[in-house]
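Q: How would the structure tokens look for this protein?
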Amino acid sequence: MAERFKNYINGEWVDSISGEVFENRHPSNIDEVIGFFPRSGKEDVGRAVSAALSAFDEWRNIPPPERGKIIHEAGCIMASRKEELAKVISKENGKTVSGAMGDVQAGIDMANFISGEGKRWYGKTTHSGLKKRFAMTKRYPIGVFGVITSWNFPMAITCWKTFPALLCGNTIVLKSEENTPETTVHFVKILVEAGLPIGVLNLVHGFGPEAGEALTLHPDVSMISFTGSSAVGKIVGKNCAGRLAKVSLELGGKNAVIVMDDADLDLAADGVVCGAFSISGQRCTATSRVIVHKAIYDLFLKKLLDLTSKQKVGPGSDDSSDITPLISKKQCERVLGHIEHARKKGAKILSGGEQLKGGVYDKGYYIAPTVITNVTVDMEIVREEVFGPVLVVFRADSYEDAIRIHNASPYGLSASLFTKNVNKAFSFFDDADAGVCYINAPTFGSEPHMPFGGVKGSGLGYREAGWTAIEAFSEVKTIYVDYSAKIQNVQFENNE
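A: Here is the predicted structure in token form.
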């Protein structure tokens, strides 16, 4: 019998008020029910927010270095249970255990980095425009923080949002993603074990239109941090804007690699295949477009197809699998729909393009690695985030033409250029519409001490992770101290 999990509110593990639950199934074996989780609604979210609000004053008054010690301890616990946590992630979202180990390590790295920022929670001092007047800024927490995570990196993304928010003195209501709720349970238990006070972190399970929307609309939630699709991000942003709440949206991508005629083609092909097909393309920074200079197009395409044909498709339980199942039937149907639509619009499917059947493939939702050519910048397959093992290939006449094709996308998360020309490399940073740029590397690989986020349809609000997370998840207060013993004002013509 599958385990029945609970919400965590005000230091207690509790059922949803309605008593309703939803089931979570194993992507590599859809016959296996992982567990049953509370189907939370508005009332459950309200209880969690009340708990976070009650805990806020005590938590905010704990010095930032002390808050950092708790986060550091959580990172140490995660490190001691790395493989155990990776197996939970693999079971929930289908990636291999080794791939899930990277997910956990990203969380550990964030704990190690952000915990030290408690000693660097800097304000600024500066000169006043008036005599005998002191001017400075201090940072303060925002309040109750709503965190809505995604399923593709359930530990990493949760850590990247939650740890900085906690360090800044905010209290949190965390809405788990319905495909990976058990991972979030383990995360909460680790922070509790690390010494986090009661009420500071609260967990509610449930669906976006129910628990998620209730969280974004709650009047006592001061800020929402959301990772997910651009379509849902627009709803979250609208809900927050309607009540003037702060919001940070990390959204989709349609990330491209540009391969120039002077590139190391073996390296570029390897980078593109890795970026496009690892974890089945289910990452916001996946390589979904490759733009190839015409002089090496045919040779590169041959190398690309050869590497693609060698990709092993299999369950996450097999660590040799290069491509694992998609997260759900719904996502599988969505990806196949995009491929079929492209076919009807005249695109050419050079490899893959179908759901795999037979044997182990009948236990999950597997799509063969797909390479598509004969596309135009206005096609749906080129403009929409597919979130599957699907790659479209463009031929470019020049570097300038490649940039034109790249920037035609409504997204702007990450981008990569393969070249040996240093001038092209540095020009690329200026020319590419992207929040993250790489040279001679895939379109993924962000590090916790560096800001992360996109432009255009890929994000709104703040850069999360890195030092900018402190700026995103805290308020700046401007302070003046006048010791002139008289009333002064910078707008006065004469303060003598």
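Residues 255-439 form a domain with the Aldehyde Dehydrogenase; Chain A, domain 2 fold (CATH 3.40.309.10).

The first strand starts at residue 3 and ends at 4.

Upvote if useful.
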